[in-house]
Specification:
8 strands, 2 domains, alpha+beta, 5 helices, two-stranded antiparallel ribbon, four-stranded mixed beta sheet
Length: 187
């Protein structure tokens, strides 16, 4: 998605310039048993023109656009080493992709860019990023909700609590040393 070794950057640039990349879906790590690293699904197409597909669904003209979906935060830990997607996770990505392709709502989902999750980028935007196809670069970060507490006030509260915890730590350390000394072990 971003490597330039072994002419990979040139190959990726050619795919972008020829408008063959339709969608990139970043997957979380630990999804596959044979690798712990994150993976990415590449959707390639030779035809982004408006048309009716084989299932009779009308597709909008997507020429010059690429959909980026960052699904790395979806799923759950199935056990200590493997991650899995729920059917709802899969449906969320599928509905979003098809809503983007058709330009119409699907299962109540209408496509719109969502910070931290999905972005429809133009070929020009992708070229500005040297044809890097990493979804996180385009979707950005999800917006954090502001809790309304000013930073200075929040830091004052946190440092006061930390000070209390340091004092408690010192008391506990003194008590442990006293107990060890009583047992004949002095630090």
């Amino acid at each position: 998605m971003s490597s330039t070794t072994n002419n990979e950057g040139d190959i990726r640039a050619a795919l972008v310039e020829q408008d063959l990349v339709e969608c990139m879906v970043a997957l979380p790590g630990q999804l596959f048993t044979n690798t712990q690293i994150p993976a990415c699904i590449w959707f390639l197409t030779k035809n982004k023109n408006a048309r009716t597909d084989k299932s009779g669904r009308k597709l909008r003209d997507r020429t010059g656009e690429v959909l980026f979906i960052d699904a790395r935060n979806l799923g759950y830990m199935k056990d200590r080493v493997l991650r899995d997607f729920t059917p709802d996770d899969i449906q969320k990505v599928a509905d979003l992709y098809h809503a983007w392709k058709t330009g119409e709502a699907l299962n109540g989902v209408t496509y719109e860019d969502q910070a931290g999750f999905c972005k429809s980028a133009t070929i020009a935007e992708i070229k500005k990023h040297d044809c890097v196809l990493t979804p996180g670069r385009y979707v950005g970060a999800a917006e954090e909700e502001d809790d309304g507490v000013p930073f200075a006030e929040k830091m004052a509260t946190l440092t006061a609590k930390l000070s209390e915890q340091f004092a408690e730590s010192a008391q506990l350390e003194a008590q442990i040393k006293k107990n060890l000394k009583g047992l004949g072990y002095e630090l």
